[in-house]
Design goal:
Layout: H1 3-12, H2 35-40, E1 58-59, E2 64-74, E3 79-85, E4 88-97, E5 100-109, E6 112-113, E7 120-121, E8 126-137, H3 144-149, E9 162-167, E10 172-177, E11 180-190, E12 207-215, E13 231-234, H4 239-247, H5 253-264, E14 280-282, E15 295-297, E16 301-303, H6 305-314, E17 320-323
Parallel strand pairs: 9-17, 11-15, 14-16
Antiparallel strand pairs: 1-2, 2-8, 3-4, 3-7, 4-5, 5-8, 6-8, 9-10, 10-11, 11-16, 12-13, 12-17, 13-14
């Protein structure tokens, strides 16, 4: 890479000498419930998106469909059948709304069930057959069709060949390969607490991102030493960041669409909007102490010098990174 490029990264990115630390260190004591296990936990498949609930059926009301002859009733997403009976088929769905695990129970009724309690179903899997079908979601405050249309595809961290999870609460990163943990590292964050909202807030983001760039320099500029010799860029902002930015008037609809497409393709997204950018992993100018303040950067995740080369090699371009 040419020096001018790296100067631009330094000016627009997140490395900076640490400010005078006035806040307490990020707590790293072991929690009663391991947040990494909780994030990945649960039984059965994780939904990779939702389809229209009754495609091709003649509507007979919200969540109701009719057909001239018996036809298959298909699940709108992957899930686990919790029970079947006179009330219908109850399917439990798990998915990730950006970095937040979510769950929903859906009741399908009006037809003859063809699945047993405890069975896993994929999106499009047959739940039963009949000439009528009804579907209702417990506690959902929007129409099923609108809910599904907003979530045609969703991330499934458990399915990634390489995955990095970064806990804000524990200030720790764990790397997984084919679902097995292969590395555990202490990390630092931006100088301000909380999830990143906009350019200049000195916060590290929360969300699902992908590694889109590796570089080992030489870096230039006043803050070059604070890369610690390694740089891995993430494609912040992501689709959820862009949607939030559009709602807040920080970006327009066209910019939101460009960011969403690039993020979904695991490519670089714009770093020149009011949402900010230039977020990634890097080392530091010196070896820092876990017991000290971990509020170091302008928003990047800061790695120990003892770990940065190992992490750099472990996370290829395209690897999913979830900061939660």
């Amino acid at each position: 890479m040419v020096a001018a490029f790296f100067l631009g990264v330094l000016l627009a990115g997140c490395s900076s000498p640490p400010a005078q630390a006035t806040e307490a260190s990020v707590p790293v004591a072991a929690a009663e419930v391991d947040p990494f296990a909780a994030f990945l936990g649960g039984s059965g498949p994780v939904a990779d998106g939702f389809s229209a609930p009754l495609p091709g059926w003649t509507p007979c009301g919200e969540g109701c469909g009719e057909a001239p002859s018996a036809r298959a009733v298909r699940s709108w997403a992957a899930g686990v059948v919790e029970r079947t009976g006179p009330e219908g088929v109850v399917v439990h769905h798990r998915w990730y709304e950006n970095h937040e695990p979510r769950e929903l129970r859906v009741v399908w009724s009006g037809f003859e069930p063809a699945v047993a309690a405890g069975a896993s179903v994929e999106r499009g899997g047959v739940l039963g057959r009949g000439r009528t079908a009804r579907v209702a979601a417990e506690g959902l405050d929007e129409a099923l069709t609108a809910f599904a249309a907003a979530r045609p595809t969703l991330p499934v961290p458990q399915a990634e060949p390489v995955l990095a999870l970064v806990s804000h609460d524990l200030a720790q990163m764990r790397i997984y390969r084919e679902g097995a943990e292969v590395g555990r590292y202490e990390v630092g964050f931006g100088q301000a607490a909380g999830a990143k909202v906009r350019r200049g807030d000195n916060r590290s983001p929360k969300g699902v991102y992908y590694v889109v760039q590796h570089a080992t320099g030489p870096f230039s500029g006043a803050s070059a030493a604070y890369f610690g010799g390694y740089w891995m860029r993430l494609n912040y902002p992501n689709a959820w960041d862009a949607a939030r930015g559009a709602r807040a008037g920080l970006i327009d609809a066209a910019t939101q669409a460009r960011i969403t497409r690039a993020w979904a393709a695991r490519r670089e997204t714009s770093k020149s909007t009011a949402l900010g950018g230039g977020i990634g992993f890097h080392g530091w100018a010196y070896e820092w102490e876990d017991a000290g303040s971990r509020r170091l950067s302008w928003g990047c995740v800061v790695l120990h010098l003892r770990d940065v080369a190992e992490i750099y090699a472990a996370l290829p371009d395209g690897a999913m990174v979830v900061l939660f």
